[in-house]
């Protein structure tokens, strides 16, 4: 029997707040055409930050994949194939569980960032690193809400079921993010809106933007058996705690960042060298030298007291800072006066 190439509308039911929402997967439609060009982004960047380089985490989103290239990028940067076998509710539970397990490894005490100290290095993978920036005026016309999920799916069609689930999770996080007392947050879909939120949250338009070094691979680093030694530590912000904004790339067909401020913080650039382990056959898979940005949250009194981090440290929330490395896809904003 011949194979017919047809556009098939696939109705998928996703539970949402007790209701069922029909989703059109792979429906006929076109991706939003108004992607921002590299020249447009550079022009904006130089207008607000003259003679300053654009962070690599922003530059990574400067081209829009299409056709077969888009499908390859999707398979690389979205959920694994196993998520296709999960219901939306189970997928969300699995995602939260996996994130919590991973986050336990990703947390470090500030004392770890001392020259000569050794650690098992964990840096999370960069998510959707090559999804392209939309033009700022285009983002205002996209109804970014789970209530408009069908419309959003059609706008970015064709998308896979796995990507659709990820899009729902991202939109849900933007609408109902986990809150820490005093946290400011926003989801942004353009460089202009990201810059605008950072300026508003930090109370100044005089900003500096940073991203972690290209030494950090897109897939992150997880080294349960490979030890790294801290070779050097440089304070990016003033030693006294300062307010900063961190923007995390989220899974979405276009560039979307979850930006938040959990202040005060101290920011470090940490250079690490891999310890040589001749008996470890996996050592060659990890970089020999890594330069990465680390964020230390100083006021942790409102942090989750059930984290194993506190048990391992022998402390309670509010008694010690909590630090983590930024991924390849994160952008850090700080006032120019402290950076």
UniProtKB/TrEMBL annotation:
Q: Name one Pfam family in it.
A: BURP
Q: What PROSITE patterns would the database entry show? A: BURP
Report if keyword Signal is assigned. yes
What are the UniProt keywords, alphabetically? Signal
> Where does the signal peptide begin and end?
1-16
Whether Kinase counts among this entry's keywords is no
The cross-references to InterPro entries, in alphabetical order and at most eight, read: BURP, BURP_dom
Q: Which residues form the BURP domain?
A: 107-336
What PANTHER family would the database entry show? BURP DOMAIN PROTEIN USPL1-LIKE, BURP DOMAIN-CONTAINING PROTEIN 10
What this protein is called in its record is: BURP domain-containing protein
Organism of origin is: Urochloa decumbens
